[in-house]
Design a protein that fits this description.
It holds the Pfam family RVT_2. This is Reverse transcriptase Ty1/copia-type domain-containing protein. It comes from Prunus dulcis. InterPro entries: DNA/RNA_pol_sf, RVT_2. The chain has two domains: 72 residues, no CATH class; 100 residues, no CATH class. The strands form three sheets. It has a four-stranded antiparallel sheet, covered by helices on one side. Strands 5-6 form a two-stranded antiparallel sheet. The radius of gyration is 24 Å and the shape is flat. The termini are far apart. It is α+β, with helices and mostly antiparallel strands. A hairpin with a 6-residue loop joins strand 1 and strand 2. Helices cover 32% and strands 15% of the residues.
């Protein structure tokens, strides 16, 4: 790095400055910040999950409090008293701002009602349809063609592999709140290395199905509910 204006340069040619801490914009900055965050969470009694290093948990008197973080955005849920204590503690360690009840996170909308919490990606779906020029497409009632099996088709016209991979990647992310497209997406994702026209057709069918149900998602009821909703292609 270059010395700041006003600091006399007395070093010899070929010498560099030694940083005593990480600065914003360096490659190592995000890792250094996360390391500091992990240390603070452990100091507060939280345990870092082995399966997801961005998830932290704390149990106290049969009550569980969890925090999950993505870059510098985080969600905290669980015991109300502990949640408030954690918020005060983190505010003393880092510059942060509480946005209240969760409404939107990583493209997922989180509206609340008397029935419970609903997870939806309606805006994400509409943006995806707009980017693929499918907003005015003819809708269809199912995400996959009945009894249709995809394979490798080396004799078909080659397509833009990177575009196909990006599109399927977006569908994989969407499937987090859309279990009704999970199987169809898992099928088209098997051909990321060598997509052809038939695979594009299968992806297009998924998009046409999304046109029918852009706001469909997951609901977590406040009360026990045993209704099961299933999708099948079996006879």
């Amino acid at each position: 790095m270059d010395p700041l204006p006003g600091i006399p340069v007395t070093s010899k040619k070929g010498m560099v400055c030694k940083l005593r801490k990480s600065l914003y914009g360096l490659k190592q900055s995000s890792r250094a910040w996360f390391g500091s965050f992990v240390a603070s969470m452990r100091k507060s009694g939280y345990v870092q999950s082995n399966s997801d290093h961005t998830l932290f948990l704390k149990r106290r008197k049969c009550k569980l409090t969890t925090l999950i973080i993505y870059v510098n955005d985080m969600i905290v849920t669980g015991d109300q008293a502990e949640t408030q204590n954690l918020q005060k503690y983190l505010a003393s360690e880092f510059e942060m701002k509480s946005l209240g009840d969760l409404k939107y996170f990583l493209g997922i909308e989180v509206p609340r009602s008397k029935r419970g919490i609903f997870l939806s990606q309606m805006k994400y779906v509409l943006d995806l349809l707009a980017k693929t020029k499918m907003l005015d497409c003819k809708p269809i009632d199912t995400s996959g063609e009945q009894n249709h099996k995809l394979g490798l088709y080396p004799y078909q016209v080659s397509i833009d592999k990177e575009r196909y991979q990006r599109l399927v990647g977006k569908l994989i992310f969407l499937a987090h709140t859309r279990p009704n497209i999970t199987y169809a997406v898992s099928v088209v994702s098997q051909f990321m290395h060598s997509p052809s026209e038939d695979h594009v057709g299968a992806v297009t069918r998924i998009l046409r199905y999304l046109k029918v149900t852009p706001g469909k998602g997951l609901i977590f009821y406040k009360y026990d509910r045993t209704d099961v909703e299933g999708y099948t292609d079996t006879d």
